[in-house]
Amino acid sequence: MRGGREIAAVTGASFELRPGECLALIGESGCGKSVLASALLGLLPRNARATGRAFLGDLDLLAADERTLARTVRGRRIGLVPQSPSAHLTPVRTVRSQLEETVRELTGLRKAGLREAAEAAAERAAFPATHLDRHPHQLSGGLAQRAATALALVGDAPLLLADEPTTGLDRDLVDRTVDELRRHADTGRALLMITHDLAAARRIADRVAVMYAGRIVEIAGASAFFGAPGPRHPYARALLDALPERAFTPIPGMPPELGDLPGGCAFAPRCARATARCGTLPEPVGGVACHHPEEATACSN
Ligand SMILES: Nc1ncnc2c1ncn2[C@@H]1O[C@H](COP(=O)(O)OP(=O)(O)OP(=O)(O)O)[C@@H](O)[C@H]1O
Ligand code: NI
């Protein structure tokens, strides 16, 4: 809601995520990625509401009450690497003390084991042991990011939501961080990684979901998406073509205001393939919501 009006930040998002799998959620700023993650955790602002179903095992996350979410879901069944780590860390406590508390809560470890486990968690997220006794305001953005990732990894939750987990990290650390997240999936857990970093997505994702103006417009296997035959939705194709290492062609125009979406396909005003048909909303077919998708070829997965 903005100015008393209701705005659909995410619409009709439908996807599955299996144990052992990494799904990368990509799309321009403001398209609804973080709102989707917040809805799964029951962390939407009070003026927002979510409808539909989102099953984690037998539990419908959208129907669960706050007590269940707070006691059994957040941290335990779903880990979160938040988009703004500094806002998520407790300002008055050192990183070590926050890690130790989380380890104690989630694993029941005590005393000596606690210290060791906290240090191991820091190590997993490449957070330097020399900085463990610092407070959040003494950390750079990249270090706060790593502290938040360490905290999120502690419980080995069956589902990890990582919202821009590599912001502020240089390339080596990006690779190291996403490889650690990938290991989380490789041990039979699920990972939803929200990212602007398509190289990081390509490195670890099994599948890619592309969001535009609050809708998932394409879901595809990562190797088909990033390699051959490439994305099938014109927006997804344009996102990749905008990369400096590819065509470096910016997407013309701007994403629409969510409060002022066109009636049909929201990408049509920016799309070279658009025709009159795009005035009606395309339903997803074979993972692609477009009236004029690029051809699927035999090697797509
Ligand atoms: N509390 C709120 N009240 C009103 N609108 C909101 C609120 N939170 C998010 N929005 C709107 O919802 C839309 C989606 O926001 P969201 O944060 O999910 O985008 P995002 O895809 O995560 O972007 P980014 O890549 O910049 O993080 C935006 O247009 C944003 O302005
Ligand atoms: Ni976001």
Low-confidence stretches: none
Number of beta strands:
8
Along the chain, the helix and strand elements come as: EHEEHEHHHHEHEHEEHH
Label the overall shape.
globular
Tell me which ligands are bound: adenosine-5'-triphosphate, nickel (II) ion
CATH structural architecture of the largest domain: 3-Layer(aba) Sandwich
What is the CATH topology classification name of the largest domain?
A: Rossmann fold
- Total helices: the number is 10
Binned, the helix content reads: 25-40%
Could you state the CATH homologous superfamily of the largest domain?
Answer: P-loop containing nucleotide triphosphate hydrolases
CATH class of the largest domain: Alpha Beta
Largest sheet: 6 strands, mixed
Subunit structure: The complex is composed of two ATP-binding proteins (NikD and NikE), two transmembrane proteins (NikB and NikC) and a solute-binding protein (NikA).
Pfam family, one: ABC_tran
Catalytic activity: Ni(2+)(out) + ATP + H2O = Ni(2+)(in) + ADP + phosphate + H(+)
Organism: Streptomyces telluris
Brief digest:
With 301 residues, this protein is α/β, with parallel strands linked by helices. Helices cover 32% and strands 12% of the residues. The protein has 2 domains: 32-188, P-loop containing nucleotide triphosphate hydrolases (Rossmann fold, 3-Layer(aba) Sandwich); 206-301, no CATH class.
